[in-house]
Amino acid sequence: MSEYENVAGGALKLKGDSFKIKKKKKKSSKEKETITSLAKKIAKEEKRNQQPIRVVEKTEAEKKFEEIQRKRLEQKVIKSAQKSHKERVAELNRKLEEMTEHYDIPKVGPG
Questions:
Q1: Residue 70 DSSP symbol
Q2: Which of 6, 69, 108, 111 is the most buried (most CB within 10 A)?
Q3: Distance between CA atoms of 52 and 42, rounded to whole angstroms?
Q4: How far from chain centre, in Å, is Cα 62?
Q5: Where, by residue number, does the polypeptide cross the bilayer (predicted)?
């Protein structure tokens, strides 16, 4: 008698049906034909129902606002290009040194 005669064979069985692999059925050619014909009909109906595209022009205020934004952006770029990386780091360090450190333990009491 072999040691493995009483052992059940096959894959492990897990609890629940959600782990089972289900094979999908292939669609028949008739189903594919009906789906494509329906899609074509819908596309034709959409083409008929399309409205002409309207072009919306911007108002004077919108044009002026965008112009001012563009100028401010140009000024910002010019200003940032004037400083080197080393100067920016030095300025940041200077600001950090001037700031009060909120995590320091305040001195309380005599001494």
A1: H
A2: 69
A3: 19
A4: 29
A5: none
